[in-house]
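Pilot study result, target chain (137 residues):
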Amino acid sequence: MTIEIIEYNNIKYAEIIRAEESVEKTTFFSPAESSFQFGLLAHEAGFVEPPHYHKPVERTISDLQQMFVVQRGVVVVELYSDEGNLLREIELRQGDAIVLIHGVHAIRVIEDMQCISVKQGPYLGEAEDKVFTEVNK
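Predicted structure:
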């Protein structure tokens, strides 16, 4: 079992789970202290989880991580260092998932795509959420 971790200067920028990744049991790859938990749920046929809910706990989150799961198409995610230098281009295809943890990112659509996107809320609108920046090309 492997996930791809993109790090630069001891800072984790992203984690990638490819569609063909398989686990025997539920496995989370993110550290417990991470503000965004990333993993695979896996159970054998017949497993039943009792009805439950998650306790409301006040949390203070200062970062905003985002996850994409590609449902169809092909997309390239570009990751940039804090200095604006291109670190990696990651091509994602159907079933691939990425969590964007740190730094500047951009996307380029290669084939018409649709992704599930998950990030912390509430959404405060583009003016409060996104900072467009110049990068070194």
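One observation from the pilot: The CA atoms of residues 37 and 54 lie 14 Å apart. A full batch analysis is planned for the follow-on phase.
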